[in-house]
Amino acid sequence: MIEAGLKEGHDTEQIVVRAEGNMASDMNGEKVMFSTRSGKYYNLGAVGGRIWDLIAEPIDIGRLVDTLASEYEVERATCEREALAFLRQMYRESLIEVRPS
Questions:
Q1: Which of 62, 83, 94, 99 could form a disulfide with 15 if both were Cys (CB 3.0 to 4.6 A apart)?
Q2: In the chain, which ranges are continuous DSSP H helix?
């Protein structure tokens, strides 16, 4: 489980994918989303929106982090830490699914 198991340097081979029941749209360069399950709206921002785009299909977290680190020219360790924090929050809100590799 992402909440308990994902720490920097560990479990980046787990697979993440969008959960069903969410509608997203681009607004002024940022991604906004509505969860039909919870009735909540979310502003994912630009980077969060990019993560949302990348997890449209199942992707292992290591590959997700590699892509983001390359695109945003940030150190991989920093990118991993920030991406995992974002994914944990999305998991807590039931916006993503986490699967073993």
A1: 99
A2: 2-5, 45-54, 61-72, 76-92
Residue located via tokens 């929050």 = 89
Tokens of 7: 């720490």
- Under DSSP, is residue 25 helix (H, G, I), strand (E, B) or coil? strand
Across 49-67, average pLDDT: 97
Task: Quote the pTM value.
Answer: 0.88
Residue 96: strand, helix, or coil: strand
Could you give the CA distance from residue 97 to residue 82 in angstroms, rounded to a whole number?
A: 18
In the chain, where are the structural domains located? Answer: 2-99
